[in-house]
Amino acid sequence: MKIITVKHIIDTCGNTDVIDLTGLVISELDKSYIKNGSVLIFVPGCTASVTTIEYEPGLKRDLPELLAKLIPEGRHYHHNKTWGDNNAHAHLRSSVFGTSLNVPFENGELLLGTWQQIVLIDFDERPRKRKVIIQLTGE
Amino acid sequence: MKIITVKHIIDTCGNTDVIDLTGLVISELDKSYIKNGSVLIFVPGCTASVTTIEYEPGLKRDLPELLAKLIPEGRHYHHNKTWGDNNAHAHLRSSVFGTSLNVPFENGELLLGTWQQIVLIDFDERPRKRKVIIQLTGE
Amino acid sequence: MKIITVKHIIDTCGNTDVIDLTGLVISELDKSYIKNGSVLIFVPGCTASVTTIEYEPGLKRDLPELLAKLIPEGRHYHHNKTWGDNNAHAHLRSSVFGTSLNVPFENGELLLGTWQQIVLIDFDERPRKRKVIIQLTGE
Fold this sequence. Notes:
Number of helices of chain A: 4
Number of strands of chain A: 8
Strand order of the largest sheet of chain A: 1-8-3-5-6
Structural class of chain A: alpha+beta
CATH superfamily of chain A: YjbQ-like
Low-confidence stretches of chain A: none
Order of helices and strands of chain A: EEHEEHHHEEEE
Shape of chain A: elongated
Oligomer: homotrimer
CATH class of chain A: Mainly Beta
Strand content of chain A: 35-45%
CATH topology of chain A: Jelly Rolls
CATH architecture of chain A: Sandwich
């Protein structure tokens, strides 16, 4: 069994920007020579998430529009009042979507669906440089 | 340390159908002779999720009724307009609920709560045959 | 590769009480002498979740206020009618937020963001004693 942990810095636009990480994860899996196991994708931070989605332009617009209704930016939040921030909505969205994802692989191939991509979502209200952890475990 | 990866095909009714996978996961754990570790349950696909819930008829009705309010089927979505689809709501629900779950086990027993079941939820708008990945890691 | 599984009992106030588990996880990591790998935090139970958040008083108030709007306690739920319970909202919240979280570590340090904490959220409508599983895997 081997464990390989790599870090990448990803430029985002913030504002519920959705970024496809699938190619990056496949590239790290190929370099690792690990054939069977799972990959943990984790985002250190309180205003971003990792999940899967079909990465296409329609859903990239639908997701922010949905969240503008459910967890809007402009509402009164105690977090913003306490800290002079404007990103309480981003904190709450991150907690709901979560910051860790595990994807199994076999014979060196991620077991994703045909249209399913691994994505980082940055909910913060400004562009960010985001660290993403990719940890491969297997044999 | 051993890693065992198995695939199952599950028939669903779609439309936020909730399917209990607990028996299947226990059966694979029993067959594996792995005693301590964790199991990753993953659904390849963009319109389904894996989570835990108390699997009982009341909540099986409450969950679709809740989601009909929060992420309704009939709203205008860019995804549906672009692709001529009618399942944008299913994509968005899948991203929120997530597609991976990890459950620890010890002495050959899943460490679930008494009423807690591992479930697949199929959000798509039609019946599907769903592949589910069960990956056991441990010793 | 080693796997260490520990259980802790946590007192909660229920009602979407947010409890910081980060110190507990760090303490178990320090005791384990495992340096590289990941920790699975899992809550057995149907009315609680594990996620990450910036643990500060503002967000501890914002989260219950948000959920009172999205998944309110007082609505008609089939679960409550069937079982004479009053916690269907807690079940539904738990399924959305999820019950498992994986955090990578390296050189004996959790790879969390600066303000990011690992938290248990208890959605039940009364104080509870909650079991939490911390499982470390690595070398």
